Amino acid sequence: MDKLTYLSNADSGYIDALYQAYKEDPNSVDASWQKFFEGFDFGQTYGGETIAEQTPEHTIKEIKVLNMIHGYRDRGHLFTETNPVRERRKYFPGKELETFGLSEVDMDTVFNAGVEIGLGPAKLRDIRQFIEETYCRSIGAEFRYIRHPEKIKFLQDRMEADRNTPNFPIETKKRILKKLNEAVIFESFLGTKFLGQKRFSLEGGESLIPALDSVIQKGSSLGIEEFVIGMAHRGRLNVLSNIMGKAYKTIFSEFEGKMYEADPETQFGGDVKYHLGFSSDITSQEGKNIHLSLAPNPSHLETVDGVAEGMVRSKIDMKYAGDSSKIAPILIHGDAAVAAQGIVFETIQMSKLDGYKTGGTIHIVINNQVGFTTNYKDGRSSTYCTDIAKVTLSPVFHVNGDDVEALVYAINLAVEYRQKYKTDVFIDLLGYRRYGHNEADEPKFTQPSLYKLIEKHPNTLAIYVDKLIKQGSIDAAYAKTLEKDFRAILQDRLDAAKTVEEISDERPMFAGAWKGLRPAKQSDIGKPVITKVTKTLFLELAKEMNSLPKGKKFFRKITKVYEDRLKMIETDKYDWAMGELMAYATLLNEDYRVRISGQDVQRGTFSHRHAVVTLEDSDETYTPLSKLKGGDKFSIYNSLLSEYAVLAFEYGYASVNPNSLTIWEAQFGDFANGAQIVFDQYISSGETKWKRSNGLVMLLPHGMEGQGPEHSSCRIERYLELSANDNIIVANCTTPANYFHLLRRQLHRDFRKPLVVATPKSLLRHPKAVSSLVDFTQKSFQEIIDDANVTAKSVKRVVLCSGKIYYDLLEKQEADKRKDIALVRVEQLFPIAYDQLEALRKKYAKAEFVWVQEENENMGAWPFYCRKLSGSPFNLRVIARPESGSPATGYMKRHLAQQAEIINKAFEI
């Protein structure tokens, strides 16, 4: 129980006794009581009587009034006028005077507690009116849970100084009206001109547009030069046109069914209009340039959250030298989605982490009070859809969407708070959805009572126009002219759209940071890329990177790891970790950025990487790569225990900076299952849907080594199933040098493709999984590696395989001295190296070809290769584990028996 609550119920005699003791000797009472009694001027006269003469009864009432003030600050948001279409739920206890131990007879009594809210001594009537106007009108504020007194005081002082009653100049009111007019009329125009077409209308939440306009203007005045917006489909067309500046003509052309200009070299399939992204440059009212980006987003509503945050962080690192005050993310949610989608929680948990923070996000919830058809009471257990904000102690402003000035006031305060404290802030825009989930849907089927209210409810524009006319700010003719002129503009653009043959792309991809790059052509995919480095540079970097500084006490095992790496230089046998780290070192040397994140990536799940090492006697860390030339561009972060949001973040990061080797590593390959939406909706299809390239690298540890169903397979088959038209690269390398060249190739091409790598576990330390200096300095990436241990004329069977199983097969080949079996490694599973396969078929013309894999027959690469090579001269058959619903057995003995059977069958001719 807090002190005020205790005091409001305390025995008056007890307090009187304390006061008498305080008067005799202030030090005789507890310090908190000293401060309390010092807060009252007991000698001052009010109404002919002094406070001292009213003790103890009046003192008790003072405490109760203070308790009421704090009660409104804490719980006033529960009793606001924020719902535009229906009564709010009732909460107990309420805000009646009796709740605080007061009554009507106290209303005209003067209380010194008015000092607390800046009124000075005041009647209870005036104190109550003040806090009612501040905390229980169109804005409900939740912030008292923030564990930072300065932040609480900032919000409290601002709100109580203004009483949440905006006093905007007439110019601001007219701008708000103009943007609201555009928002409302645009939706009305679409609804009448394209009857029945899906547009996911903003109707019922149109005040979002003047709110976004205001936050951009206010943000610009506070130093923000760029905003990145992520949102789902509702209201997206309105935001694209009336905030981003996408041409009405283009949007109308999309509704008319016009196609974008065809490019024979790319496989552009397009997307529905309410999923598309956009970017533009606008000028603020103060004449400042502002860049706006709206990230594309699929129907997986909140997937864009991580993507937008990654885009912002990438620009902070690349463009703004770490200054997050120059750029801000805005995430626009739906009420049902923000409460129920797990990625929202994951993304919010990233907001204060070193590897992912973006200086605070402005969250706006378009609160329709309903999901697709689900009532809000069935959509969440929390009081508010925004209760997730409390996880990071972010303030929330619940605002009546029909009070557009209150919304603009709240969002301006929100962006000030973000700039000042670099944390998230939430705006809960309470509105409604005038139609169903889409315009062809009938909402009355599931929400008849709500939609009876909505049918009778005037739109936000009508409400605001009426308010301005009553104020004398405008007359009716002004509002009618505004509407008429804007409708005429829309009609003109619609007429122009009807004459369009094809839509031209308004935002070229290969500009800005992407300048100098281009879309990939089919003929590019198989071209060799020079990724080798000089012997001198390689050895120089290898020695420098692995020489730990003297005078620092590292763990003995760490010291040995680095000593062993130096020995690799002498023995000319470089293991997997060295191959990987050398790829990073050489890219940094060439002034590229390298960013790696994922669970425990600094050390590596299998203790192989040790890119960051910790001193034995402290928490001090040392990062060898950061000490090299270009090392200031190296970042490696252990992520939170998330796959979905973190992968989305890294995709966003890579989308903005193509000159960064951006890597996400799963702890085990199958953990990527938790991020499958990002693979499906962005990584594999983003270029086809949105003409947006991306070079993100995903490392998925893979290998059947008896570790059970959940630590064996990265589900290669899933990524190959997503593969088409050279959209992604899927690889399963067997040598450190080939992996080295694969990583370097990502940045040495003049186009970008996502790369999925099935990375090893046991091969990290396999004695034969090593490369020599010549492999790094004289070769390049090999899509297919032929068998150098056999002669073609002696070969009766060619075993095509990929990844770890090669070494099991090699052990058998060498033990049995088999020269009639050729082991050919397919290092790049997709795009398929058809020309190289055909050359092998001709080379081994008399041999049969079989596909051997350690995965089950219905998994791994076989189903894909079976389909792709069906009807070809290869006529492949497979040797694999039997089909199964589980990726692997959980019993080591069974695993070993299965593995032995596969190996033996591969050599049975």
UniProtKB/TrEMBL annotation:
Pfam families: 2-oxogl_dehyd_N (PF16078), E1_dh (PF00676), OxoGdeHyase_C (PF16870), Transket_pyr (PF02779). The keyword Oxidoreductase applies. The keyword NAD does not apply. InterPro entries: 2-oxogl_dehyd_N, 2oxoglutarate_DH_E1, DH_E1, KGD_C_sf, ODO-1/KGD_C, THDP-binding, Transketolase-like_Pyr-bd. Signal peptide: none annotated. SUPFAM superfamilies: Thiamin diphosphate-binding fold (THDP-binding). Belongs to the alpha-ketoglutarate dehydrogenase family. PANTHER family: 2-OXOADIPATE DEHYDROGENASE COMPLEX COMPONENT E1, 2-OXOGLUTARATE DEHYDROGENASE. NCBIfam families: 2oxo_dh_E1 (TIGR00239), PRK09404.1 (NF006914), PRK12270.1 (NF008907). This is oxoglutarate dehydrogenase (succinyl-transferring).
